[in-house]
Amino acid sequence: MTRSTTDEAAVPPLPSPKERRRLREAKSLSEEEVAAAVGVTRATVRSWETGRTSPRGRKRALYAKLIAPEPAVKPPVVTAEAAAVVATSAAAPAAADLPEAPPLPEAPSPAAPPSDPPQAPMSDPRTGAVAADDRSRTAEVPGRPSGTAEAPDERRASPAEAFDELYARTAPGLVRQTYLLTGRRALARESVERAFELAWQRWPEVAVDRDPAGWVRAAAYEYAMSPWHRLRRTHRHPDAPPTEPGKRALFDALLDLPPAYRRTLLLYDGVGLDLPETAAETEASTPAAAGRLMTARAAVAERLPELADAAPAEQSALLQDRLGGLARAEHVPVPRPARAVRTGSESKARLWTRAAVAGVALLIAVTGLTLHTAPTHYEQPISPPERVGGVPPRGGPQKLTAQDLKLQKSLNEQVAHGPERLVPQLE
Question: Is Endoplasmic reticulum found in the keyword set (predicted)?
Fold first, then answer.
């Protein structure tokens, strides 16, 4: 029996890589347990959770079923008759020792549907950056209650408008975050603009991502932390540190940390991500991210005495305040307008496309010229001349003596070139 492709189509779509990891850790499953249940290696499971690859076929179905969230259990609706029976039985004296029944939930009123709780602010008040909870916010249309479905005739935002809204909301704070990560203002602005250019080129993928701001943040951090920037003269050395002693000590402590530790500290204490999300964005396990965080905090506490004497919870709050104050105090460059970023992204995409087409055309031309001018058969090259020794003397008749030359001359002077006795005499 052959399996058709409709089996894979019937499998529900998998969540984003970050959500896969969160669901696995929510069920207290390790990578080894998931790998054993699905029938793959631990490296394959980690590749699925980092977004490098995705499962297919039967393994996709098993993996989706394994990390699927538990269905929410709806509370039973209690009717008025059942509530009256329960009240009567509770008021009557108990004849035997029975366990106390749990309180019954109240039935929701049909006239007042439950409303969604108000969402928390989307931006981080410390650094002005967008925290991880941004992905839970949905756009609200003026004049429509929150949580209601959008009417079919209402105008939807275009891709350019959605990109501009994301850029205006996250770009300024992201530049400050990247400055804390690199210590270079120009590189911070370049990294953020480059990340948004890449996001606009892949906007169909970014727009449906669970956390578009996190996608752009990860791209900006990766570009900013590239070691190739050390070869550029403008980004070879960090900018001048702040003049205030406290901010200067924090600035120097951040730049002295290894890049991975610095990024972990900034994501957890600066942006406000939780530990699993920080580990997923840095492509590390949760214990490894926790170890990096503790090491980074200890290194920073050596430079800041007020952090060394504080408890872990107070230390985290103090670091949040110090990082936010350092980010707000420095004058980082303002990124370009969103329209300029979109135009630059489209121009670079066209340039790379034309360069690729020109390269392919040049390759075809060179291949055709080579086929036209190449010889059709192999001609062995002529070896260079060499002097050869030990050759025997030339054979044949010997050199004529003087007597032989005289006889040859006399014979040649005769009429018939021979003795007269051999020439017939005609009468």
Answer: no
